[in-house]
Structure formats: structure tokens, C-alpha cells
Amino acid sequence: MAEWYDDLLTFINEENKDGILSMLQRLPNIPGAIERLREECAPLVIASCRKGYTDVLQFLIDNDIDISNIDTQENPIQVACEFNQVSVLDFLFERGVPILPGTMKAWEEESPIYIASKCGHYDVIYKLIEKEPNLIKDDQVRNCLLYAACLGGNIDVVKMWLSPSIDINHPLQLVKRLTDCEKLTPLFAACAGGHKHVIKFLQSNCEDLQFSTAVCQAHPGMIGEYLQQYFEVEPSDNEDDFIELCTGHLQRKNLHMLHTDWFTQHPYFMTLSELDISNNRLTELPDCLPWKFQNLRCLNASRNFIKCLTYCEEEGSEEDSICPSLEEVNLSYNNLETVCRELFEIQTLQHLNLSHNKLVYLSKSLLHQGVAQTDSITVLKRHCKFKHSASIRGSWVQI
Fold first, then answer.
1. Kind and range of the H or E run holding 8
2. What are phi and psi of 44, to 5 degrees?
3. First to last CA, the chain
4. How far out from the chain centre does Cα 300 lie?
5. Which of 183, 209, 235 is the last residue of a domain?
6. Quick one: 65 and 118 in the same domain?
7. Which of 21, 134, 214, 396 could form a disulfide with 392 if both were Cys (CB 3.0 to 4.6 A apart)?
8. Is the domain of 261 the same as that of 385?
9. Looking at the structure, do residues 13 and 71 belong to the same domain, yes or no?
10. CATH of the domain at 346
11. 258 Cβ neighbours under 8 A, 6+ residues apart
12. 138, containing H or E segment
């Protein structure tokens, strides 16, 4: 390779614009240099679009070098959008370079407007729309661009693409790959990008934003970290308390599941005293809830879609160690058909609400194991509500 080209690459890598221009001015006097540059101009074109060197691009055009047809993964328009170079876009548009080359669509991840949305370049997006308004005429295209904006984390761009006509919980319809496409919602993108502020914005501006099972399972750490704001330390007058107890207020958050990690990554097994998860869309509770919570006094899981309550026994656990502080459980307005016997063995339980469920029996094995005479069942008899449930078997009516 000619020495001049090595020097030119050095100037490019050093982002030395003066050095580049000085070298280019010498090329007409070097035999074969322009022809060589015409064949290997890609590094110079990409660097110029990245840094906004429109005078370098003009030199190439003046020497009949086609800057729009280069052998690289990214074309000049894409690079200018990625690096927020509006002046380069103006330069290219004035010379007839199209926004979308060939068969590329606006919703594709490689499209200039998708790149600009992901990178959060508001002015670039405005320039692209000004040049070609029809880019965003389709709701499904705007949904893809909203996904890109949530992935990138720029709130101004998220606001640009969020509109009442977009279903915030609907996965992308325009995708190249079907793998996991059912997960691709704006909330999923915000979690994938690690942007709690975007999650907060979406929840504040979209009443029906759903924390779906797919999102919670894919990004338990991000969702869990976001939900920490709804846990509060209980005020205490005793400065000698060894443990600071806290309460969890997760009601009306459109949660479709509770991930065990949300409780194990913090000392909630020991510190949580009250947990309200009512008015969500839960179909089950994690195995640890409520059984492993040593100081939990009140659990409100009403108005969900919980189908069953099961007990996860640990090796070496004793009956008197089950929920040693639990006093109140509200499981009303769910889809419960049965509940486990261990619920009635909680010695501290004072109030249990199972009303408005689909109960046929409370426990298949409870009566057979002679538990019906324990104090906890007496508590059940006084306080349990069975309104609008299915008929309870005769042996239970006699309790």
C-alpha cells in the first residue's frame, strides 16, 4: 500500500481533520492516488460522516468519487444518524442520497430513523421526517420506533413516538425474526436498556401498562430494582430495634407475576411486615410467600386470579416455624379452588378471608390428618368468609 494512504489512515484514526485535508490536497499530484482513493474510500467516508467533515465529502465528490456506494456495513446516512450529524444529512440530501437504500424499511433495526430513535437524536429524527413524512405514517412503524426509543432511553424521543393510537402492551408486529417476538413491547425494551426512568415514564403515562410474565421473567433484576420504590421502612420509636421492618405496597401495578428474586435479593424474609399485592393480575404466588417471611404480619393478595395456594416445605422445618408472625391473610376475589392445610396451621393467624373464590374444599387431607380440632381451625371457624364460593363439603360445614 502506498505511503500516502498509510498516512491518511493515521490521520483518520487520530481524527486529525487538518491532516486529512492536507493529504487530500496533495493527491492530485501523486500518480494513481485518486484512482486508489476511489477504490478504498470507505474509511474516509465513514469517518467524515461520523465527525461531520462535509468539506472532505465535498472533495471526494469533486473528484468523481461516489460516497453513497461504499462497501461497508453502514452507509453514510446511517452513520450520520448514529452520530447526530445533521449537517452531514443536509449535505447528503442536497446531493440526492436517499434515506432508505434499496428495499430497506423504516421499521427495520438498520434504518436511519430507527438508529436515530435508539440513539436518542431528536434533531436527526426531525430532519428525517421533514425530508420524508411518509416514513412514519403507519402506527406499526411508530410502534417499532417507540421500542427503539425505549431501548435507547431518551425520554424526549419516547414522548415523540408515544401516542394514544399505540397499544403499549402489544408486541411488535413488524419483525425480521420470530424468535421471542411476543416479548418485544416498549416495557421490555426499557428493561433491556436498563432505563428505570423510562419504565417510570411509561407507567405514569400509560394506565394500562402491564408487567407481563414474559417481561418479569426476562428481566427480573430490572423490574425488581424498579419496584423497590414501593417498599417503605416502618417508623419505629425504639432505637434498639435490631431489624428495621418494612412494608410493601405493590397493589394496582398490573403485575402478572411475582419473582422470587425480588424478595431474596433484599432481606425481606426477615424485614417485611406487611405486603399488599392486591388488584393485580397474579395467577400464582412464589413458593416463598408467605411461608419464609419471619416477620410478615399481614398479606393482602385479594382481587387477583390466583388459582391455588401451595406450601413449599423445606428440609428440617418445623410446624411452629411456619409464618411465626402472620396474623392476617386476605385471598378474597381470586380463582382459588383449594388451599393447602398448612395455612390453617399458622398459630398466629387471626383473620383469614377466602370469600369470592371457587372453593370446593379447603384441603383434601386436612380432615384425614385430624387437624380439624386444632386452635387454628377454631380461628378459621370464627373469621373465615365463604361468600359466593362453591358449596363446601359437608364435613367442612360442620367445623
1. helix 3-13
2. -70, -40
3. 95
4. 26
5. 209
6. no
7. 396
8. yes
9. yes
10. 3.80.10.10
11. 250, 277, 282, 285, 286, 289
12. none
Residue whose C-alpha cell reads 411476543 in the numeric block: 182
Per-residue pLDDT tens, the chain, 399 aa: give them: 478 999 999 999 999 999 999 999 999 999 999 999 999 999 999 999 999 999 999 999 999 999 987 878 889 999 999 999 999 999 999 999 999 988 899 999 999 999 999 999 999 999 999 999 999 999 999 999 999 999 999 999 999 999 988 899 998 888 877 676 778 999 999 999 999 999 999 999 998 999 999 999 999 999 999 999 999 998 765 655 567 889 999 999 999 999 999 988 778 889 999 999 999 999 999 999 999 999 999 999 999 999 999 887 765 455 556 899 999 999 999 999 988 888 988 999 999 999 999 987 665 555 454 443 334 333 344 445 544 433 333 222 222
HSE (side-chain half, CA atoms, 13 Å) at 77? 24
What's the grid cell of residue 242? Answer: 435490631
pTM for the model: 0.85
- Domain identity same for 231 and 338: yes
Which one of 209, 229, 255 terminates a domain? 209
When divided into structural domains, the chain yields a total of 3
Q: Do 388 and 251 fall within a single domain? A: yes
Secondary structure of residue 20 in the 3-state scheme: helix
* Domain annotation covers residue 214: no
DSSP assignment, residue 371? G
Claim to verify: residue 250 and residue 303 sit in the same structural domain = yes
